[in-house]
Amino acid sequence: MALLASCRRHLLSSLGPLGASSRGALPGARAASTFALPDLPYDYGALQPHISGEIMELHHSKHHATYVANFNKALEELAEAEAKKDAAKLITLQGALNFNGGGHLNHSIFWTNLCPSKDWAPPSGELAAAVEAQWGSLDAFIAKFNASTAAVQGSGWGWLAYNKTAGILEIAATKNQDPLVLQGLVPLLGVDVWEHAYYLQYKNKRPDYLKAVWNVVNWKDVAERYAAAKAG
């Protein structure tokens, strides 16, 4: 129950700006929230040739949309279970909230972490200094990140994260759609390595996809997340 409550609080607070609105619930229950699929800040074909327009359209309009729909459904069931004080139902909903809420949160970060290659610029300022301090160079960081993320078994994510306790950057991985907060880390940059993120273009060659994605990483967005994490 503690994990469920913690995850739910994080998801609701983190996703609030991403299209959540208050929704009526049963008497005595918390108000449920409806989450919406966020618009992409670029066209589906804007990341070509590194990520195809077909992949982006399916990934966003089908896969992400399904996480949003199922997350909203789980929240409605949660509100009903809270109203009925149905402890067993609250516990069984943990998986659906984590998976679908995590899927919505992770993808909402992922879209803004990307940009057309014409807008690409390397990290600078405090973020660049932190990367160099931690790994020696941007190239060395990318090599370690790609090795770690290519090794994710099955489906999951590779992350550049901020460890508030240690005050340092870290490379992390999560399985399926687990949100990084469950590791006590702040997500700055996420790379989706579910097959639907790359298979239509790169087939089973995940390392090729990981090599290409750095051409469309939005380092400005990553830097903004880093500054916010340090200030928060």
Verbal overview:
This protein has 232 residues and is an alpha+beta fold. It folds into two domains: 2-44 and 51-112, Fe,Mn superoxide dismutase (SOD) domain (Helix Hairpins), CATH 1.10.287; 117-231, Iron/manganese superoxide dismutase, C-terminal domain (minor pseudopilin epsh fold, 3-Layer(bab) Sandwich), CATH 3.55.40.20. It contains nine helices and five strands; from the N terminus they run H-E-E-H-H-H-H-H-E-E-E-H-H-H. The strands form two sheets. It has a three-stranded antiparallel beta sheet with strand order 4-3-5. A hairpin with a 4-residue loop joins strand 3 and strand 4 (168-175). Helix 2 (53-83) runs antiparallel to helix 4 (94-112) and helix 6 runs antiparallel to helix 8 (206-213). The protein is globular, with a radius of gyration of 18 Å. The chain starts with a helix and ends with a helix. The model is unreliable at 1-7, 12-19 and 21-31 (pLDDT under 50).
- Shape assignment: globular
What is the average of the pLDDT values?
A: 90
Rg estimate, integer Å:
18 Å
Q: Which percent band covers the strand fraction?
A: 5-15%
Q: Report strand order across the widest sheet.
A: 4-3-5
Q: What is the makeup of the main sheet?
A: 3 strands, antiparallel
- Oligomeric state of shown chains: single chain
Coarse structural class: alpha+beta
CATH fold assignment of the largest domain: minor pseudopilin epsh fold
Distance between the termini: 27 Å
**pLDDT below 50 for ≥5 consecutive residues: which ranges?**
1-7, 12-19, 21-31
Number of domains: 2
Specify the number of helices.
9
User: What is the helix fraction of residues, given as a range?
Assistant: 40-55%
Total beta-strand segments = 5
